[in-house]
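Model it.
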Amino acid sequence: MKFFCVLCVLFGFASRALALEREAFMVAKYDLAIALEPQQQRLGARGKITLRNDSGHPQKIVALQISSSLSWRSIRVDGKAVQFVSQPYVSDIDHTGALSEAIVTLPVEIKPKGSVELEIGYEGVIPLDSTRLIRVGVPEGIAKHTSWDQLGRGILSEWRLFLYLTALMTMMIFLSHGTQDMYPTFLKLQRGFEPKEVAKIAVVYTSGALLGGICFGLWSDKFGRKRSMIAGSKSKPFLRVRLPTNRTRMRAGDGGRP
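Modeled.
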């Protein structure tokens, strides 16, 4: 008889899960304390979340989802434990290819645009898992070496190459972004040019960038990428144009100071 009662309860929760609107509630606010143990790859979270009913009708069932490598420990409303059933849910959101879903039965229905605050707790170990990547077609050998968990060890084992690439990309940013971000502002504020003059200058250097991209792209195909980068970097000082300062406008703007 007890087994029959337990079976009826499980079937009841299963029927609710089938009719569940997983997107009915949105997280409006959260305040979680996260505990990390890097050596054991363990994560734990305790705190409160506020859910808002964004559906068009009252809701009493909530679906909470975390990584399938984690486990739900407690869910409370107003300091009292509430009923919930934890089950796996297949999804590509998580690296494991699945989620640990808690189907929670709230004490009262939440009206549309209404909210409820839950006290939650979950924890678990986050191991290396390439299930999702393999599922979407990434070869297994590559998928097993794309985890961020191995990034630190990879950098330490190849630290010379890492420093070289960091310095290289830093210099590339210095070379390529000088005329793309704050240069028009520099011309207006530091050089005193009018907006129309700045626009004309922008047309000139943008046209040069387009022409240079085409020419050095062909050069790269013919002579190699490294040679074209070195040639472009060395030729840059000879192609610079010294812009005059609009002294009249600067004197008018700063009270006539030189």
